[in-house]
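does this look right to u?? oxa(dethia)-CoA version
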Amino acid sequence: MIRARIIGTGHYLPEKILTNKQLEAFVDTSDEWIRQRTGICQRHMAAPNEKVSDMGAAAAKMALENAGVSPEEIDYVLLATLTPDSCMPSAACRLQYKTGATRAAAVDINAACSGFVYALQMADSFIRTGVHKTVLVVGAENLTALINWDQRDTAVLFGDGAGAVVLRAEEGKRGILTTYTGADGSACDILHVPGGQVMIPLTQEHMDELNLGIVMDGRELYKRAVRAFGEAIEVVLKQAGLTAEDLDIFIPHQANVRIIDSAAQRLGLPNEKVFLNLDKVGNTSAASIPIALSEAVAEGRVKEGDIVLFAGFGAGLTWGSTVVRW
Ligand code: UT7
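got this back:
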């Protein structure tokens, strides 16, 4: 049976770090509040000239090197992001050029924080149906560019960075076993960026709305996230014919440690099977799972034959989960 196997992982985090303590100087917040309510201690921040395609290309190069694959072998580039360099052309096309993936088709996927899982599902479908053999999936975000630092509820949550995986068609038992994705568009306004596109265009008269940055109903999102996360995990495990006891490692979207803890408790998963890095990187949306995966692989936390679970949720609302045999 042909499966899509992840044969290389990589990530990139911008050099600049913004700690909670540093945030205290210009946001009405405290290190204690942020740690207690979210688990975040610091986040990385892209330099002014650093775009999603640059961060994504850096992560992609690391993934290609680890896979032993040359850029010209890539058939397709899927870039999950909600912060593309510009709305046209796609950041995926810029990334394709910067990576040297000259033969590859390229497209952006926007499913917010679930984007990486959505893109993985598409890559898996391309590969299992024989349409493509080698696919690069990248999650990259420049979320600090969207932040209004006067909005403390969102200003403290987000960070920048990129993660990437190279998938290849392979005979055998290893690779993506199954993916589940879903959406509920009736909840669009719970987490959104109102300004800057067609609904509220970039004009002088719209300056106040454009300055809103990321708008979020945190409490409502929290409730729905706990529910969606739990359900996404239950469904994907059922699809895979597995139970929580079969899992070797859970690599969740890193939004809030309390949301992750509640999902792990519901599954009965011990702490050592849950990979966390949000204390160091914050919420990097579509980049969150691939950065965590790349770090987990580099730390030797993922071994051949392991059953690995990814799960994410985010604006849309969207959610998604994937089970992989490593
Ligand atoms: O990737 C998906 C995207 N986002 C999420 O998944 C976020 C989901 N939601 C959450 O993670 C949580 O709701 C938050 C971390 C955003 C907020 O935590 P919370 O425990 O739900 O806090 P809250 O919104 O209920 O606010 C509690 C208090 C409020 O003050 P009062 O009304 O009790 O006096 C807020 O004004 O905390 C205040 N507050 C803050 N205080 C210090 C809100 N933000 C801050 C802040 N620093 N940054």
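The chain has eleven helices and 13 strands. idk if thats expected tbh
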